[in-house]
């Protein structure tokens, strides 16, 4: 598959974000950005895999990216042109998939479409289009309690995609799924990225292999050490891997490639130093 591409405008920018909690520095001067990737003849969104050891600050950074909590300093800018993040612009898919239990699958999507301001006359068609894209047409009139975990996850992703502004944050989307389901989720996320030029998906995960198999970029969060090897409090994005440059983005069967496994080993090795 061709990797001819250009990086265009920055569509997400994190500037000098720091966060303290309970007297501890959690994040320190985090600076990172995502640029719109353009490929000839297709709409190509962005997928970032966001990795880091447990307790490093991924969840807190995720909440700041979504505008759910404010950093002590710094800011997050989104869109084209860039403007400060506000709650609702970034779709957040939590592991628990919170859906309205008293509404059907279609009803849940209709609420999201209304929240986004899609005109009433167009809502049903838009929601049905989403249901078809997510392979949920047969479940439109079911209630969340009647769905499997994987089906609930797809409804939650569709719902967040409908009511947000091209940005989706997913918290551990592969957790608790078997290998076939993980492949399906990977396929779904790739297809969402291809739905719109600006669609940008950030996947927070402990699963290095699955994240790397769909990402164009990996962010690894970690802390610095001083000259004596002591940890300096406050995490930042310590390493950014450009998988396009490595020829590993947008490749069929990338997981069967030796250079892909070398990358996964490299990231795993890096974790031990963070
Ligand atoms: N309300 C709080 N007050 C003080 N410290 C907190 C608070 N919430 C989180 N922390 C600390 O902030 C750090 C980062 O937590 P966070 O949940 O962001 O880590 P994480 O990378 O998402 O971890 P995991 O991968 O295990 O979910 C942890 O050391 C945690 O103990």
Automatic annotation (TrEMBL):
Pfam families: ABC_tran (PF00005). PROSITE patterns: ABC_TRANSPORTER_1, ABC_TRANSPORTER_2. Keywords: ATP-binding, Nucleotide-binding, Transport. SUPFAM superfamilies: P-loop containing nucleoside triphosphate hydrolases. InterPro entries: AAA+_ATPase (IPR003593), ABC_SmlMolc_Importer (IPR050093), ABC_transporter-like_ATP-bd (IPR003439), ABC_transporter-like_CS (IPR017871), P-loop_NTPase (IPR027417). GO terms for molecular function: ATP binding; ATP hydrolysis activity. Residues 12-248 form the ABC transporter domain. The keyword Nucleotide-binding applies. PANTHER family: AMINO ACID ABC TRANSPORTER, ATP-BINDING PROTEIN-RELATED, SPERMIDINE/PUTRESCINE IMPORT ATP-BINDING PROTEIN POTA. This is Sulfate-transporting ATPase. It comes from Haliscomenobacter hydrossis (strain ATCC 27775 / DSM 1100 / LMG 10767 / O). The lineage of its organism: Bacteria, Pseudomonadati, Bacteroidota, Saprospiria, Saprospirales.
């Amino acid at each position: 598959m061709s990797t001819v591409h250009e990086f265009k405008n920055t569509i997400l920018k994190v500037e000098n974000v720091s966060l303290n909690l309970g007297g501890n520095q959690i994040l320190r001067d985090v600076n990172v950005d995502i640029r719109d990737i353009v490929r000839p003849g297709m709409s190509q969104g962005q997928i970032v895999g966001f990795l880091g050891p447990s307790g490093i600050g991924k969840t807190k950074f995720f909440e700041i990216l979504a505008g759910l909590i404010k950093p002590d300093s710094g800011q997050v800018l989104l869109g084209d042109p860039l403007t400060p993040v506000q709650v609702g612009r970034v779709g957040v898919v939590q592991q628990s998939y919170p859906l309205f239990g008293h509404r059907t699958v279609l009803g849940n999507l209709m609420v999201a479409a209304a929240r986004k301001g899609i005109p009433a006359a167009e809502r049903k068609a838009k929601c049905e289009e989403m249901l078809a894209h997510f392979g949920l047409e047969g479940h439109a009139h079911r209630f969340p309690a009647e769905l499997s975990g994987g089906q609930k996850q797809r409804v939650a992703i569709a719902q967040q995609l409908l009511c947000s502004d091209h940005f989706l944050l997913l918290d551990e989307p592969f957790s608790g799924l078997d290998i076939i389901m993980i492949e399906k989720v990977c396929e779904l996320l790739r297809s969402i990225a291809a739905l719109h030029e600006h669609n940008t998906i950030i996947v927070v995960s402990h699963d290095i292999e699955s994240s790397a198999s769909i990402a164009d970029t990996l962010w690894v969060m970690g802390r610095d050490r001083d000259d004596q090897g002591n940890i300096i409090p406050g995490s930042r994005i310590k390493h950014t891997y450009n998988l396009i440059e490595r020829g590993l983005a947008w490749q069929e069967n990338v997981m069967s490639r030796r250079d892909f496994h070398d990358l996964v080993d490299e990231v795993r090795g890096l974790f031990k130093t963070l």
